[in-house]
Amino acid sequence: MGEAMYSTKSANQSKALFRGAFILTIAALVVKILSAFYRIPFQNIVGDIGFYIYQQVYPIYGIAIVLSTTGFPVVISKLYAEQREKGNVDKSRLLLFTSFIYLQLFGFICFLILYFGADIIALWMNDPHLAILLRVVSIVYLTFPFVSILRGYYQGIGDMVPTALSQVGEQTIRVLTILLLSYLFMQKGYSPYLVGGGAMFGSITGSMVSSIILFMFLWIRKEWKWIAPSRGMFRTFAVEIKGIFKALTFQGLMICLSGMLLIFIQLADSLNLYSLLTINGMEKDMAKSLKGVFDRGQPLIQLGTVAATSLSLTLVPLITRERLSEKQSNLTDKVQLALKVSIVIGLGASAGLWAIIRPTNIMLFENDLGSAELGILGFVILFTSIILTIIAIMQGLGSLVFPALAVTVSFPIKYGLNMLLVPWCGTKGAAISTIITLAFVTVVLLLKLKKMFSARLASFRSLATVLWATTAMVVFLKGYIWGTDIFMDDFHLERIGAAMQSLSAVFFGGIIFLAIILRGGVFLEQELTLFPLGSRLIHFLARRDRDKHGEKN
């Protein structure tokens, strides 16, 4: 009887865990899609120089988002759940209050550095007018502690709905504020920097809405009494306070750093790309415009990375479960599958985007400026999808330090490569430096992961099939774009024609790529069943690959 009750409780906890993970995954997906899509109409409203201004400061905001979303809430929720499981009410309150004090101090220091150091940072970027935007975005660092604590609390009690709603609400209000204020300010003829400041104000409104949503849950459910500090607890639990500080500093910052890969890359470009262009003799407005064109790659990269990682990251909870059950063979299979998915979708998306970059650029941004650079940046999707998948796998296996170090080192490498390559070939050099940096991080992480597993991480047969599918797709797409260009030129369709070209090319190219992947036996039947709609794709498998129980390396 006791064993049956324990088994039922364990099953219910497992279901709740996966349901919560699913809710947060959907929320993260919505947030990432919104974050990518809004940049397109925003660029259309403010132009390339306006887009440059916004993107120069965006990495500073991006850091605050990572702090309040992925790093500290995860650690706080883990520690809170442990104390709750033990029935330590006072220690759980101590955890939340101590974490709040720690994060408030951390956020206040960041605010002071950004607000009073804005002029110095703007000079580092070689654009003193950016100081006002830096001061606006610095305010977010005063609000993120509230959001982090409450998200950590709700995730700690297993309720992911408040966190998910706060994330989606924050991003929705932020995007609406950015688009509305940028449109109104442009209509009134304000300076591009004032327009950029209005856009950055969206970070404040979004953060405020997120806080309000979380506080509403506290108020409606009357849960404030469960998290309010008790009198004298600091004297009682002095040793525990040191442990909390240590956990937040070590685990929290490690997880945060691991989530800042693309932010570090963007930050390096913000700090020295524009300044390198102007130092080497380029006129300032031209340099700003070129940097704005270069930044068109960000929404393309984000959309591609979301598509490439949305499937591979769904396997991470399964990897964690296999690790806990100590089934090494099943664990290896899941790791191999996650990597295979990231490579297949990442390479397909990168190569496909490169093949159709010109009409895609015109469709989204009105002209084909910077298409060569954007085509190179498209391969960021491949490396980023592999890197993010490996990081998630390592974190699922309990490794926090190595992924954080690998991501952190990307910043000085990218910054240094910019200094070497940008004077030589301009923004194309910046694109190449990004690819080299990410390729280096990918190799380092793959070598580390290889040491953690004795089995081969990918089969040569699968990789050969993926390369063949990619080659066939690219050849078709290049021919398709060349052939349809003649038709589009005759009818002078321009942007509408580019949209027709791009969307139809994605459809036909995707079918060719997917057909070769499935018929080539890259995925097996039981692997496809792990993914949404995977059961429908089974019918396209070659007959020999059905009903097999794993690909043998």
- Write the element-wise H/E pattern from the N-terminal end onward: HHHHHHHHHHHHHHHHHHHHHHHHH
What's the story with the biggest beta sheet?
none
The amount of helix comes to over 70%
Rg calc: 24 Å
Helix-and-strand structural type: mainly alpha
What is the overall number of helices? 25
Poorly predicted regions are: 1-11, 547-553
Query: How many angstroms does the end-to-end distance come to?
Result: 44 Å
* Percent of sequence in beta strands: under 5%
Integer average pLDDT? 85
Envelope shape:
globular
The strand count comes to 0
Element layout with pairings:
Elements: H1 2-37, H2 39-86, H3 89-116, H4 118-124, H5 131-138, H6 140-156, H7 161-187, H8 192-221, H9 224-227, H10 233-236, H11 238-258, H12 261-279, H13 284-294, H14 297-312, H15 316-325, H16 328-355, H17 357-365, H18 371-377, H19 380-396, H20 401-408, H21 410-452, H22 460-491, H23 494-519, H24 525-528, H25 534-537
Helix pairs in contact: 1-7, 1-14, 2-3, 2-5, 2-6, 2-7, 2-8, 2-11, 2-12, 2-13, 3-5, 3-6, 3-11, 4-5, 5-8, 6-8, 7-8, 11-20, 12-13, 12-21, 14-16, 14-19, 15-16, 15-19, 16-19, 16-22, 17-23, 18-21, 19-21, 20-21, 22-23
Task: Describe the structure in your own words.
The protein is built from 25 helices and no strands. It has 553 residues and is mainly α. Helix 1 runs antiparallel to helix 14 and helix 19 packs across helix 21. The N terminus and C terminus are likely disordered.
Task: Identify the notable features of this structure and list them briefly.
mainly alpha, disordered N terminus, disordered C terminus
